[in-house]
Amino acid sequence: MSQFTLNLLVIGASFALYIGIAIWARAGSTAEFYAANRGVSPVMNGMATAADWMSAASFISMAGLIAFTGYDNSTYLMGWTGGYVLLALLLAPYLRKFGKFTVPEFIGDRFYSQTARIIGVICLLIISITYVIGQMTGVGVTFSRYLEVSNSTGLWIGAALVFCYAVLGGMKGITYTQVAQYIVLIIAYTIPAVFIAMQLTGHVLPQTGLFGTHDASGVKFLAKLDQVVTDLGFGSYTGHHNSTLDMVLFTLALMIGTAGLPHVIIRFFTVPKVADARKSAGWALVFIALLYTVAPAVGSMSRFNLTATMWPGAETGETFSQPAVSLDAIANDPDLQWMRNWQTTGLLNWEDKNGDGLIQYYNEAGAADAPVAAIIEEQGLVGNELTTVNNDIMVLANPEIANLPGWVIAIVAAGGLAAALSTAAGLLLAISGAVSHDLVKGAINPNISEKGELLAARVSMGVSILVATILGLNPPGFAAQTVALAFGLAASSIFPVLMMGIFSKRVNKQGAIWGMIAGMVSTIVYIFTYKGWFFVAGTNMLPDTPDAWLLGISPASFGTIGALINFGVAYLVSSMTEEPPVEVQELIESIRVPRGAGEAHSH
Amino acid sequence: MSDRQSSNAYWQANLRIIWISLAIWALVSYGFGIVLRPLIASIPVGGSDLGFWFAQQGSILIFIVLIFFYAWRMNKLDREHGVEE
């Protein structure tokens, strides 16, 4: 059976499963559409949250980000998991007790202000739409690589599928499809990792293999990796090379950004009780950790495999004990078929610059002081000859690099699609809830019937899928930058306002409104100053380099500062204006205790 | 009035548990994983050092333990103060 047929079968079967679940779990009421009737068990909700949260970026890109940077990018591992501690301790139980359907609804009620609610909707829409574009792009890329269709055909197929189950099932359908998608994606991520860990270290668990011994050379795997990459002029894998302050701020921005993402928060509205919301965050993190503790092993091991492919001597002995890989081997060796496959996608490329028939891979910037300098001198190298290595192939090409069977490759393709589709569906639900519940019912037509609201929710979801697909077809050139923007905004606008709404009785309407505006505007302005206005190249006012950053704070880390500005402004403005009314103070008292969560949504 | 006082005691106890949990949360990630890494660099863990382990694996495991500890402790506190569901 050809690889293409296998891919088609596995991906087709996974899609049939998702659609089957969606038909079984259709939503009939707004409570089912927005919150799955609050009947989801904490473990199931944890699994669905994990799929909701782990996007194409987690599945496809994160291991590559860690692979090529090493320790310094531990920020992603800690940042994207530590946020769940904040969610469990500071937000989820209280928002569940509040018992409404959307994040802006809480902001509007707690700060007794339609303006605050609308600002909440605007923040939510900017965050979720930038995020969903990235998912749709990921769907297009995965389809075009594995099903040999064009990028745009892939996107439309993905959009049609999401439309089927998200519009039909709402939160209820999405929850149960996400459970299935989690299972597909975690199997897809783990199988190649287990194979690779066994090949390199003899450990079945990638988590222990990372800290185990490299079988072929008999030294610790991480020590071996450090040796090989520093020989080639790269920074050491386990070493700390970046600014400590920026590392702390970036990790914090990812953590509070995670806790402030509306599509993650609304998942906790679906469980029956406050105690379940606390526990469910723990289960979510267990399921997320199954991938996040494997990712550093995948990153480091695939980095090693790639480097040892380029310098075959590195596998068993000294890096330069054998010549670099030859053009002849790349063209004919069946073990290197994957290089030829991935060259056609443009994610991997090489060029024999000095015409010696060998492809020498090294880091030009750090070569002068590294052992590779002698090789450069001896072989007359004029530059690094592995000209393109995209981060993403570390996961996508992994099974091929390690020579795993065809069905593993097909499962990885299905897993990448599951990760992108499940996140897209969660985001679309957050968007449609904000439009139909907060804008249509909350602001435009408060007397709308339940049936009318349900229709509005479905229509707005359909429209947002269309918008996301069109933007995904013509990414405005900022797909890669959207993470910084989405997390920066969630950190600087939504997280602080929710936290103050629960933990302070003194912060009032004016404080919340000006706090959100100050946090959001300062973060957007800081990002655009260095990245260009609306990410249009050339419109940045300062160069995007560590020297030009304010106190060395990178634009991606600024969400933390934006959050501090939000807190500061909110407290200052609140202290100069009147206290919140008595009924709001009573509302705060009531969300702080679990008792009575069952009836909270009926009034 | 007594209700209000009991819920105040409940809230104060909750805040204390949150502070302790967040102190551990910050210590393992920002502390051992980043800022204090040089201080514990002499403790080797599988080809690297303890700080590297905290940054890439240890803090995630402790986050999980923290959330389940908080959930268990709060359920107990809810019952002690009679505010459980």
Automatic annotation (TrEMBL), chain A:
Superkingdom of the source species: Bacteria
Family matches, as Pfam families: SSF
Location in or out of the cell: Membrane
Gene3D superfamilies found in the cross-reference section: Sodium/glucose cotransporter
Membrane topology: Multi-pass membrane protein
GO biological process: carboxylic acid transport; sodium ion transport
Alphabetized UniProt keyword annotations: Cell membrane, Ion transport, Membrane, Sodium, Sodium transport, Symport, Transmembrane, Transmembrane helix, Transport
UniProt xrefs under InterPro entries: Na/Glc_symporter_sf, Na/solute_symporter, Na/solute_symporter_CS, Na/solute_symporter_VC_2705, Sodium:Solute_Symporter
Sequence intervals crossing the membrane: 6-25, 46-71, 77-95, 116-133, 153-170, 182-201, 247-269, 281-301, 407-435, 455-473, 479-499, 511-529, 549-573
Signal peptide: none
One Gene Ontology term, aspect cellular component: plasma membrane
Gene Ontology MF terms in the entry: symporter activity
Stated family: Belongs to the sodium:solute symporter (SSF) (TC 2.A.21) family.
Protein name: Cation acetate symporter
Upper classification of the organism: Bacteria, Pseudomonadati, Pseudomonadota, Alphaproteobacteria, Rhodobacterales
UniProtKB/TrEMBL annotation, chain B:
Presence of keyword Membrane: yes
Domain of life: Bacteria
Annotated InterPro entries: Na_symporter_ssu
Transmembrane regions: 20-40, 52-72
Domain Sodium symporter small subunit, chain residue ranges per copy: 8-84
Any Pfam family the entry gives: DUF4212
Keywords: Membrane, Transmembrane, Transmembrane helix
Name of the protein: DUF4212 domain-containing protein
